[in-house]
Amino acid sequence: MNFEQLAALADEEIRELSEELPEALAGVLPRIAILLEHFPAQERLCEGIDPDQLGLFEGVGAEDPAHHQVPRIVIWLGNLWEMSNRDEEAFREEVRVTFLHELGHYIGFGEEDLEERDLG
Q1: What is the pLDDT of residues 51-76, one digit of tens each?
Q2: Fold type of domain 3-116
C-alpha cells in the first residue's frame, strides 16, 4: 500500500477516534498539529529517533497552555504498516493506539501511565 493510501486510512481512523473521545479531551485536539509521515527522515535519525519508532509527541503539554509553541503528534505510517504485517485492520488499530499514546503524552502521562492503560 502506498503512503497516500496509508495516510487516508490513518486520517479516517484518527477522525473516527476523535469523535469517540470525551468532550474535554476532544476539545484539545484543535491545539495540536497531527503529522502523518511515511518513515522518520534522516535528520530525525540524526536526532536520535529510532528508525522503527511509531510516533512522537513534540512540544509542550496541556499543563502549559500559555506557551506559544504548537504541540505536534507525528505518526510514522510506514513503520505502523510494517509492524501490523501489512494487515489493514491491524494497521488501523495500531494507528489508534499510537495516536492515543502520543495524545496521552500531551495531557501529561508518562510511559508507565500509558502502559497501565494498554497504550504502551
Answers
A1: 999 999 998 776 666 566 789 999 99
A2: Zincin-like (3.30.2010)
